[in-house]
Automatic annotation (TrEMBL):
Belongs to the glycosyl hydrolase 130 family. PANTHER family: GLYCOSIDASE. GO terms for molecular function: hydrolase activity, acting on glycosyl bonds. Transmembrane segments: none annotated. Keywords: Glycosidase, Glycosyltransferase, Hydrolase, Transferase. This is Glycosidase. It comes from the Bacteria. InterPro entries: Glyco_hydro_beta-prop_sf, Mannoside_phosphorylase.
Length: 370
């Protein structure tokens, strides 16, 4: 669906790698992508994008080896023989002789706060001095895909921390939305896309989660649901310790085109009709798939109760926006929504476009009617 206000606000060339946390590595790098940003409104009325910067080696493969960046009390380079890995995906390489799927990354991700005007249409400041980079062994391959929620007077940000130890969810907090403090690891291995609801329900924090696995158990024949990755729910008294909700959340429907994968997008925000949840669905296509954004309304007092789900994509990849960046494109047909704020008669929605750039879209509130 076309929108009157829809643009790329941050592109790879906007990032100044001279101010990157990786400057001490002393090798040539480039910005593979500046994308999948967390979004919130600051106390001064401006917006904050927390941009995931994927900084990659240039080139990662040379002299018969593929290399990756790893943090270990400083940044280091590791290497694997090209004959031992599959490098068909530009983002990762796969070890050929492993008994299970083992990946390496051709980039390391860090987070850059970028301040925008109140409507999200102009960049005001890049806060390199407040960048968030790996600092522990469970983040040694980077920290990715931030989601920001404001609960009361406190900002909470979840991120994916990547390491051989586990692919975990980590929590940061802030008193102003700009200066962030690491809290702790809050979800364990491959429980991704954790989105904290922007408000308490009966005095508790709620969150959407998305655990992954290699095995799923089938529903009954003719069930309206299909087994696979789904959006689950969890609750917490303090935002650190989380209990899974017994009731399911948003599940893939049998016969839907988005059953390859689904997961949370923007943190749910409260509307007069219920909690508005923007999520991504993936249609099988090629190696990566087609990512689109969809939406659901969840009951105000019990988010496990789904009031309405739209089967029509809310946001799709827009090749018109990325056409000027064709020489930097390495993926297509991907939009990955990661943030939403109130803009008056519309919502301001932030997305990652093609794992390359940050996209801002103004969507009329009138579209979200059950």
């Amino acid at each position: 669906m076309p929108y009157a206000t829809d643009l790329l606000i941050i592109r790879p060339d906007d990032i100044d790698l001279a101010r990157s946390p990786l400057t001490g590595l002393e090798v040539d790098t480039y910005v593979l992508g500046a994308f999948n940003p967390g979004l919130t409104r600051l106390a001064n009325g401006n917006l904050l994008l927390m941009v995931r910067v994927a900084e990659a080696l240039k080139p990662p493969a040379r002299d018969g080896f593929v290399h990756s960046i790893r943090w270990d009390n400083g940044y280091n380079l590791d290497r694997w023989a090209l004959s031992d890995v599959d490098t068909t995906d530009p983002r990762v390489f796969r070890l050929k002789n492993s008994a299970w799927d083992v990946l390496g990354l051709t980039s390391l991700s860090w987070l850059l706060p970028v301040e925008l005007s109140s409507d999200g249409l102009n960049v005001l400041a890049f806060h390199y001095d407040k960048a968030i980079a790996p600092h522990a062994s469970f983040q040694c391959y980077g920290t990715e895909d931030p989601r920001i929620s404001k609960v009361g007077n406190r900002w909470l940000m979840t991120t994916c921390s990547v390491s051989p130890e586990r692919h975990s969810t980590t929590l940061y907090s802030s008193d102003n939305g700009l200066d962030w403090q690491f809290e702790d690891m809050v979800l364990d291995h491959q429980n991704k896309d954790m989105l904290i609801f922007e408000g308490l329900i009966d005095g508790e924090y709620w969150a959407q989660t998305r655990p992954l696995g290699d095995n799923y158990f089938t529903y009954a024949p003719h069930s309206p649901w299909q087994a696979g990755p789904s959006i689950n729910l969890a609750t917490s008294k303090d935002s650190l310790y989380w209990k899974p909700c017994r009731r399911p959340g948003i599940r893939p429907r049998a016969g839907s085109q988005v059953n390859a994968r689904m997961g949370g997008g923007a943190p749910p925000i409260l509307t007069p009709d219920g909690w508005l949840s923007l999520w991504h669905g993936v249609e099988t296509h090629g190696k990566v798939g087609i990512y689109r954004t969809y939406w659901s309304l969840l009951a105000t007092d019990d988010p496990s109760q789904i009031i309405h789900t739209s089967n029509t994509p809310l946001i799709e990849a827009n090749p018109v926006l990325t056409e000027p960046l064709n020489d930097q494109m390495y993926l297509h047909d991907i939009v990955f929504t990661t943030g939403i704020v109130d803009g008056g008669d519309h919502y301001i929605v932030a997305s990652g476009e093609a794992d390359l750039a940050c996209r801002i879209t103004h969507i009329p509130k009138s579209l979200f009617r059950p």
